Sequence to fold (378 residues):
Amino acid sequence: MGIPLFKVGMSGLAPRRAAEVLMSGYIGQGPKVEEFEREFEKLNGFPEGSFVSTNSCTSAIELVLRYLNIGPQSRVAVTPMTCIATAAPVLNQRAEILWAGVTHKGLIRVEDVKQHMKSDAGVDAIIGVDWTGRLPDYTRLKMLGVPVIQDAAHDPYLAEYALEELGDYVCFSFGPIKHLTTIDGGGVFINNPDRHVRDTVVRALKLLRWYGLDRTSSKDFRCEQDIEEPGMKWHMNDVSAAVGLSNMRNLKDIIQIHRRNAEMLEKGIDNPWITKHGFDPRSNYWVYPLIVEHYRDRFVKYMNANGVGCSRVHRRGDTHPGYSGSTTGLKMIKWFDDNQCNLPNGWWMQVEDVERVISIVNDFDPLEMEPEGGMATP
Fold:
C-alpha cells in the first residue's frame, strides 16, 4: 500500500449532517451557510461578520476583483507559482496579468512587484499565494499602496498570525483534497480594522455572489428588488456547509499532524541531493516542499516507484498559452519551477509512514538511475 500525496479527509459526522440537510427541504444557501461563516471566523479569530463564503476559492478571488472594479484597463501582479485558478479570475475580468517572480521558497517577491509598479500604467492589485502553507511578506506588499489579495487555498487556519501579517482580502479553498473540505467551497475574509468599511465590503460581496440580490431583505426578494449591479451565482449551499461544519471540528488536530510529520521530515531527511526550506511552525503544511536541483524529475519518478506520492503539484502559470502576460522583472521562477517538488505529510500518515519516507528519500542517488527522455540533467 502506497502513501498518497493527497487524501480526502471526511468526518464520520459528515454523512449524517449532510443527510439532515438533504431531507430538510432547504438545501441551498441558508442557515448552515451562515453557521459555517460564523464558526470559521471563530476558528481563525476573525472579527464577527468579516467572512463571506463562496462556492470556490476561484470565485472568492474573482468576487474581490469585481468589487475592486478590476477590468479591461486594469493590471494585476500575480505570482506564477500557483494553480491556474489563481490567475483565471484576472483574465475573466479582462484585466492584464503582470507575472511577478518568486523567492527560493516559491513565494511572490516584493521587489518584482515594485518593478512592475515603476511602469507608467502601474499596478491596480496584487495576488500572492501561500505556497504549500507558507506566507509571503504581505506586510511589505500592503505598503505598496494597492489592494493585496491573499490566495490562502493551502491555509485554512491562520489564527497564529497577526491580522497585520495577512493580505487585505484573504481567499480560502475548501476543495476536495484540502485540510478542510466542504466537498467544494471557498470564501474571503475582509481584513480591515474599520468595522464600517468591513461591513460595507461584506454587504457588497454578498450582493455580487448572488446575482446582485439581497437575500435578507424580504421573503420575496427575487421580485421586489431592483438590481443595481448584476452579480454571479457564487454562493455556498447548506449541504456543503454542513459537511464543512462537521470537518471543522477536527481541523486543528489535522493541522497539528501535518506539522508533526513535516517537522519529522525536516529533521530526518539528510541527502546531499536534497535542499530543505527549513521548518516553519506556523505553516499549515498542505504538502512538504523540497528542492532537488538538476534531478527533480528522477526524484519524483524514484519516489513514486517506491510507493510514495511525489509531484510538482503545479507548474508555473505564465507558461500556459492562454495565460500570457508581462514578465518584466521575473526572477528565480525558472530555477524554482525546474527543481521544486512535494512530498506527503498529511494526517493519514503514521510515524512509521514518515520514517519510511525519510528512509526512501535518504537512499536517493540520481547517479544510480538510468537517465530517460525528458528527465532533467545537470
Notes: The first strand starts at residue 51 and ends at 54. Residues 251-268 form the longest helix (18 residues).
